[in-house]
Amino acid sequence: MRVVIVGAGLAGLTAAADAMDNGAEVVVVEARDRVGGRVHGIRLADNLIVDGGAAYLGERHTELLAKIREYGLALAATTMDGDSTFLVANRRTTTATRVPPFGAVALGELFDHLEDLVEQVRPDAPWLTPHAADLDRLTAAQWLADVIDQRDARTFFPLFIGEMMAADPAAISVLHMAFYLRSGGGIRYLNAFDGGAQQWRIDGGAQLLCEALHRRLGERVRLSHPVYAIEQDAYGALVRCGPDAGAPCEIRADRVVVALPPALAQQIQYRPALPSPRATPATGHGCAIKVHLSYPTPIWRDSGLSGWSVSTSGPLLSTVDDSPSDESAGVLTGFVTGAAAAEFTRQSPQRQRDSVLAHLRRLYPQLPRPHYTVTDWLAEKYSRGCYAALFGPGDWLRLGPTLTEPHGRIHWAGTETSLEFFGLMEGAIRSGHRVVAELNDGVEPRSASRKVLSR
Ligand SMILES: Cc1cc2nc3c(=O)[nH]c(=O)nc-3n(C[C@H](O)[C@H](O)[C@H](O)COP(=O)(O)OP(=O)(O)OC[C@H]3O[C@@H](n4cnc5c(N)ncnc54)[C@H](O)[C@@H]3O)c2cc1C
């Protein structure tokens, strides 16, 4: 069986390795000139690569951990020792706790409401959740306005959703918010560093895993091959790449796996047409921009600070210590997320730099001027945002039931097709395993036209 896999992110690479192990002839076509997709290493110095994309993982990410072991990679613990820094309502404070200085009662009430919502969601089929239509109609911002009175909780909520989902609450449905939090292991797990989803990073950067998979697949991976059309009939499929590829090409396949975020999968022309959409006009994408601030050593630790900060106004809504485990450099990663990211991406590079450095001086007045790098995922043609797709009002009911339904010879992978750990590296890997199991189930492709492809 010849399988063409579209997209060399973690989902596509995992599917390709599994299909190869099962004896399939595999070709992976990737639009960019690199593998990894939303996993991307940024070289800051000869011996220093940082995660421009995905970075963190925890012990429940069992498939990712299995791959890390398989390829002999090491984990680095995320460092949280020391005091946190907060810039709330223009006031700087440092304290031993990770929670910003908002009223405990207000935050308690907010989290009680959120926990209730998360408990209600059906993780295996969010569209079948009781009152799904109501939950899918409201945005998270409307939900907040309806149920939360306390000012502190209203101020904190967009920061929390920005950090967890890189989302503006006005852009996502309540059902999507509740599902995402449930799928990732619940609010406490997703939000935690020690014992939670941010416990570790891959030492040397998560791109090491994608590079290892790439080495294994070798020449089966064709870079700079953007796919623009997939045609199929009862006898086979034809994947068309270009026209901006180095050499436009057509690749024949028995089965095709499309391992792309939904809005990018939707852009491909399908013949016959898809019976149901992969994305709707309400489907958005997370807005996250990473800013890396590097120093000769993690000098904030000398002042008893952890490097963790939260600010109520941008651009850096949070910062975290992402220094290499051998302390050969100091790296603070700043996150610009949600509505702040949408504004930041429109600014000139000079204005971005000035606002980041001014913000940093207020957060950490004792630090010298850092080396500064920005990774703007909103400007990336083949991602169009991150961490993941955001399902807007109506999307779960419209898209959910057919997320993984094959279209003839075309099968779907990608973190957004995974109901477990949706949006995360773990979800991408699980989707890759799932799709190859589907190819192996021996079911004859359904619903493709019987017309023979022009040869
Ligand atoms: C800044 C940032 C921070 C994140 N933080 C974390 C984190 O800490 N932990 C975590 O677990 N996850 C995190 N994520 C999410 C994680 O990166 C993704 O869930 C995961 O990498 C998605 O993998 P994928 O294979 O499904 O999709 P992608 O990685 O998006 O792969 C899709 C591939 O398809 C290619 N492509 C697109 N269009 C075409 C086309 N027409 N033809 C051919 N190829 C095409 C793309 O170039 C890409 O390589 C983060 C992401 C970002 C960007």
From TrEMBL:
It comes from the Bacteria. Keywords: Oxidoreductase. Substrate binds at residue 335. Pfam families: Amino_oxidase (PF01593). FAD binds at residues 30-31, 227, 416. Residues 10-439 form the Amine oxidase domain. InterPro entries: Amino_oxidase, FAD/NAD-bd_sf, Flavin_amine_oxidase, Flavin_MAO. Its cofactor is FAD. One of its GO terms (molecular function) is oxidoreductase activity. Belongs to the flavin monoamine oxidase family. PANTHER family: AMINE OXIDASE (PTHR43563), AMINE OXIDASE [FLAVIN-CONTAINING] B (PTHR43563:SF1). This is NAD(P)-binding protein.
